[in-house]
Amino acid sequence: MNQYPDPPQGEPWQQPDAGNPGWDLPPEQHTGGQIVPYGNPTGGYQPLGASGVPDHSEPTLDTIGDIAITQNTVITPSGRFPIKGTVWTMSDMSRTERTTPTWAIIVAILVFWWTCLLGLLFLLVKETKTTGHVQVTVQGGGHYHATQIMVNNPAYVHHLSQQVNYARSLAA
Question: In sequence order, what DSSP letters do the residues of 32-81 get, joined into one string?
Fold first, then answer.
């Protein structure tokens, strides 16, 4: 039985004011004053002391993507939790390819017409290209957070690996 045109009172999908559904007025625009980027309910990182006032005595030691690490705390966009006992994982989802660039193929063809075997040397030119991302996850204290970081060279993958190992040493 379909009650679509006139649902009974108290149904969860019924409009609260029994009016026609539609667009309301747009929200008020910010007209001035101080902007508070890390206030409630937006979350974000701003360490709080025992009195509830921001405490900047614990400096950020490292950041991996959107995960910040202090001596005793892991700060993610979804919340803060102690670093002791956390489990850190890193998944390298990048790939490195060695190819012959297009310009070398064109030059090899053009030079081959004038000097027979000299043009083939241009085919030995190789180009290395790294694409993909690294996924870093942290789990502990009832929280789980994953971040993906785009990489464009193998050295940056190694750097991220060192950062995760540093976080693991703090968690031990």
Answer: SS---TT-TTT-----B-TTSSB--SS---EEETTEEE-SSEEEETTEEE
60 within 8 A of 70, measured Cβ to Cβ: yes
* Bridge partner residues of 135 (DSSP): 91, 148
User: Which of 92, 64, 79 is CA-nearest to residue 166?
Assistant: 64
pLDDT of residue 95: 92
Q: Could you give the C-alpha distances from 43 to 4, 67, 129, 171, in angstroms and in order?
A: 40, 13, 38, 23
* 119 secondary structure, DSSP code: G
Using DSSP's 3-state secondary structure scheme, residue 96 falls into strand
> Taking the mean position of all CA atoms in its chain, how far away is CA 131?
16
Q: Against a cut of 0.85, is the pTM above it?
A: no
Give all strands of the β-sheet with 143-150 in edge-to-edge order. Answer: 87-99, 127-140, 143-150
Q: What is the pLDDT of residue 40?
A: 47
Spell out, as residue ranges, where the chain has pLDDT lower than 50. Answer: 35, 38-45
